[in-house]
């Protein structure tokens, strides 16, 4: 379809950067306005309302993504989420580490990206460490951890997604979306918050369709991608330090767009405010959490957005397991920290 759009001077890899920039801008603006974050939905003081926002986004991401699959615009048959061999150890360990890390830093990676654009220097520091550790786990000194755990697999055969179970994709999509919306409608949120969350959810199928259908080019292929923050931050770090050697890609555009969109939203709403660490112990806690998220996000195959908001709508068993492990890690860590001194639990938002 890319050839029919009339681009004469740009290739699909070049256009996808601008597409990701727009996609990220929309996410950044909406996420800043709705305070979108799964960590808040699991262990925050306003967890019921926050989880309602997150589940609304998930419901619309599910419906939109599976609708695009039903229209034959996209297919996940060859996607890593539907690999026949499930790296169960990597997913479970990585998910738990990521969940623990996001509780220590008081924000998942997407939320910290939004907070960075709002003037939060704690979030910026966490993201810098997160990106370095994630890249080290992907291609650097920590890669042996990834490869060793990835060797522990469970063969799924044809059952790599819920679509292979009785009832097929239609039934499971309807059940998951209905359950998510049922909770959201009882979460006490105003319609404005749920509307914003629904728009966030629709950005997920937009990303899949944009990269997997609209910009698909046989002669200059690009990866089919949607909202995600582990590989994107790793790519952004690599591009930042070696931009004269490698071109920008989807990840660079997405991160740049989120920062820009969240900055505009925070500035216009009067919520931009410089913030930093208050004590050495707080700094140590945040840096430890950043490292855990960096390793965990790579092992699990994504963060709360990459494996959760974008991954679960593919109906992937691996994505569902990763999201469950992230939630378990977050809840357990929150229990452990419940008796910690208040000074060590200084909020980041």
Topology:
Blueprint: H1 12-34, H2 38-43, H3 47-70, E1 85-86, H4 88-104, H5 109-117, H6 121-139, H7 143-150, E2 154-155, H8 168-185, H9 191-214, H10 230-241, H11 250-268, H12 280-300, H13 304-309, H14 317-337
Antiparallel strand pairs: 1-2
Strand order of the largest sheet: 1-2
Q: What is the straight-line distance between the termini? A: 43 Å
Q: Approximately how much beta-strand content do the residues carry?
A: under 5%
| Biggest sheet descriptor | 2 strands, antiparallel
Strand/helix succession: HHHEHHHHEHHHHHHH
How many beta strands in the DSSP annotation?
2
Give helix % range: 55-70%
The helix-and-strand class reads: mainly alpha
Question: What is the overall pLDDT average?
Answer: 94
Cα-atom Rg, whole angstroms? 19 Å
Net shape: globular
Summed up:
By secondary structure, the chain is mostly helical.
Would you mind describing this structure in some detail?
The protein is an all-alpha fold and 349 residues long. Helices cover 65% and strands 1% of the residues. The protein contains 14 helices and 2 strands. The chain has a two-stranded antiparallel ribbon with strand order 1-2. The longest helix is centred in the first third of the chain and has 24 residues, at 47-70. The protein is globular. The relative contact order is 0.24.
């Amino acid at each position: 379809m890319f050839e029919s759009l009339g681009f004469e001077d740009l290739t699909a890899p070049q256009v996808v950067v601008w597409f990701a920039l727009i996609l990220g801008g929309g996410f950044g603006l909406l996420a800043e306005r709705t305070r979108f974050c799964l960590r808040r939905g699991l262990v925050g003081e306003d967890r019921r309302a926050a989880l309602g926002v997150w589940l609304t986004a998930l419901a619309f991401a599910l419906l939109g993504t599976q609708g695009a699959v039903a229209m034959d615009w996209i297919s996940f048959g060859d996607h890593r989420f539907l690999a026949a061999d499930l790296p169960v150890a990597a997913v479970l360990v990585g998910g738990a580490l990521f969940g623990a890390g996001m509780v220590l830093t008081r924000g998942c990676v997407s939320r910290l990206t939004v907070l960075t654009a709002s003037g939060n220097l704690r979030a910026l520091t966490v993201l810098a460490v997160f990106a370095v550790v994630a890249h080290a786990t992907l291609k650097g000194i920590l890669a042996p951890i990834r490869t060793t755990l990835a060797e522990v697999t469970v063969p799924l055969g044809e059952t790599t997604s819920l679509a292979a179970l009785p009832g097929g994709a239609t039934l499971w999509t309807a059940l998951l979306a209905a359950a998510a919306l049922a909770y959201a409608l009882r979460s006490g949120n105003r319609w404005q918050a749920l509307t914003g969350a629904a728009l966030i959810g629709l950005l997920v199928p937009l990303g899949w369709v944009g990269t997997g259908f609209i910009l698909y080019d046989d002669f200059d292929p690009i990866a089919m991608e949607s909202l995600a923050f582990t590989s994107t931050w790793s790519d952004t770090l690599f591009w930042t330090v070696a931009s004269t050697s490698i071109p920008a890609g989807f990840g660079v555009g997405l991160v740049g767009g989120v920062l820009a969109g969240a900055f505009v939203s925070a500035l216009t709403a009067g919520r931009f405010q410089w913030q930093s660490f208050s004590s050495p112990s707080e700094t140590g806690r945040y840096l430890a959490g950043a490292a855990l998220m960096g390793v965990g996000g790579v092992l699990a195959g994504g963060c709360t957005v990459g494996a959760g908001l974008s991954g679960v709508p593919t109906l992937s068993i691996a994505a569902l397991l990763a999201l469950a492990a992230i939630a378990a890690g977050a809840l357990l860590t929150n229990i452990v920290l419940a008796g910690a001194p208040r000074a060590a639990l200084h909020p980041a938002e």
